[in-house]
Structures are given as structure tokens and as C-alpha cells.
Amino acid sequence: MALPARHTETHRADRIGWLRAAVLGANDGIVSTASLVIGIAASHASPGQVLLAGVAGLVAGAMSMAAGEYVSVSSQADTERADLARETKELATDRAFEHEELAGIYRARGLDAELADRVAEQLMVHDALGAHARDELGITEMHSARPVQAALASAATFAVGAAMPLLTIVLAPAAHAGEVVAGTSLVFLAVLGGVAAQAGGAPVAKASLRVTFWGALAMALTAAAGAWFGAPA
Question: Where are the domains of the chain?
């Protein structure tokens, strides 16, 4: 008798950690750097000053993203470790209560009392802390905090995103640098939103429109500020 074809599934949940940091970094790199150089250009600064401001924004932004992600995700990791330490202590001092707590979780999910009790018992024999971490605390290896990974992803993608408007400045005519940077950056944002949505299995058009709208708003406000406070032509 022929064996049934092997069933395989592809899930995107394991991408959540790095995808969020990567999209945030690239989006921030494009929006903040493009807005910065557009605002400086609107103030009638020289092309060299515009480029210098953009490079400074790239370096400062990449370091800021790395530091911010590392600190915030480290805080999450510290909380996870504290919860696991407390759960380990509770398992050592009151295992019967922890068993009943786990069984109660399974009853709430639809198992009958007897089956919930047996499942809790077997899982606690196999890996009590892992069962409580997953089903009581919601901590899994897939979604656990990774500060270094988040920091590196944010810094690298910010730099890549920021490099796009900077390259545009170098190639665009000096007289129209602001307009060209704005137009190309909106295209970059639309592509970024679509790629991120595709990787995460979300609607592409909605994601592209969302990031493009907020990017356009940021650039418009910064250009207005540059024109208002800048030196006269």
C-alpha cells in the first residue's frame, strides 16, 4: 500500500522577531534620512551641507536604533528570565498547585477534566518548566527575546534604508535634489511595505499604502519646517 504524501506546512510566525526589527529599521532609515535631507534642502543649504547632514543622520540613526532595540528587547528578556525563575521556584515548592494550574489551563481550552489532568501530568513529567513557560507564561523559543539579533537587524537595515536617499542625493541634479529624494523615497517605502507584507503573509497593497502615507507626511512636515526656518534663497 502506498504511503500518503508527506504533509508539510510553512509558517511565518518564526519571522516575527527579526522581521519587525528589520522593517522598523529600514522604514526609519528611509523616512528619517529622506525627511532630514529634504528639510535641509528646503532651507536652501548647499548640496555638500545636505549630503553631510544625511550622512550624520545615517550614523546617528543606526546607532540609536541599535541601542534602542537592544535596551528594549533586553528588558523583555529580563522579564522572561524573572518569570521563569519564579516559576522554577514554585515548581520546587508547590508542585501540586502548579499541576492543578496547568490542568486548569487545558480545561479552559476545551479538554474534559480527566484528560486535562492526564495531559498536565505527562507534560510536567516530561518538562514541567517548559510546559508552564509555554502554556502559562506564553514564552516559547520561537518568540523569546533576542536583544543582539534585534539590535543588529535594526542597525543594519536602518543603514541600508538611509543609504537609498543619500545615493539619490549624489545622483540627482542639485537644483531638484529635494523633489527627487521625496519621489524616490516614496517608491522605496512602497516597495519595502510590499516586501515586508509578502514575507509576513499580510496584504501587500495595504502595507505599501500605510508606510507610504506616513513617510509622505513626515517628509512634507520636515520640508515645511526647513522652508520656514531656513535662510532665504
Answer: 17-74+153-227
